[in-house]
Amino acid sequence: MPTTRRYLMCEPRFFAVDYVINPWMDPTKPVSADVAVAQWTELRDTYRRLGHTVEEIDPQPGLPDMVFAANSGTVVDGRVLGSRFRAPQRTAEAEHFRRWFVEHGYRDITMPAKVNEAEGDFAWTGRLLLAGTGFRTDPAAHAEAQEVLGVPVVSLSLVDPRYYHLDTALFVLTEATDAGPAQIAYYPEAFSAGSRRVLARLFPDAVIATAADAECFGLNGVSDGRNVVLPLEATELAARLAARGYDPVHVDISELRKAGGGPKCCTLEIRK
Questions:
Q1: Catalytic residue among 10, 142, 165, 216
Q2: If we measure between CA atoms, which residue out of 260, 145, 126, 136 comes closest to residue 184?
Q3: Full-prediction pTM beyond 0.85?
Q4: Active-site annotation holds for 52
Q5: What is the mean pLDDT of residues 45-65?
Q6: 268 bridge partner residues
Q7: What DSSP character marks residue 177?
Q8: Which helix (H) or strand (E) holds 106?
Q9: Can you give the residue ranges of every domain in the chain?
Q10: Is 165 a catalytic residue?
Q11: CATH fold for domain 6-269
């Protein structure tokens, strides 16, 4: 069943690919901020059509990746754990998002001591926090998240540099409730052998994605428990989700993908 969500997003007004911090970025290829804004706007409006609340933070010049709001905070039960970026090009983003939370009445805010790229590497399942490491978030940040947010954390190791964040290889379809367990979708080859065994044990009924779906950022999806927002190209994953009773909703994120981002990267969920 769908549940109403609250999201924080940032318009890509200053979108560009001026540097390389992941394998998807190529400054020699043309990029259009206007196209990025149009795609982002359609994503935002899609959420609103589905009944969700979308709030916006003002973009800042010189921070072209600020559109990827998911990397800037993790919010569970109203507690906010901010971010600490590994790449110096993104460091300043963390303070802008911290101020947004302060200005909107949040008082339980912690800025991490360890490198922590927020929902890029943290996925809340309703019962526990899946936490990725390997390329961006420091393994020690997992223990810090458990202490700050007060929720159990399960560490997962990423091994393919194309899937440098957990949210490029896994997303939560349905959060766990008293009525049933959480459901996820993921791409096994992005994870270490041990992490694959952990995921298979925790989520035996998970939806498994193909290599083609992973490569188009199909695992960078956003689900409200029924409606699943996916890139246009994630056709096989959409079919598998539909067979499970979910409603795939396709969006074009081709321009945003040039910087290594998709629907989830643009979407920070605020859980009160």
A1: 165
A2: 126
A3: yes
A4: no
A5: 98
A6: 8
A7: B
A8: none
A9: 6-269
A10: yes
A11: L-arginine/glycine Amidinotransferase; Chain A (3.75.10)
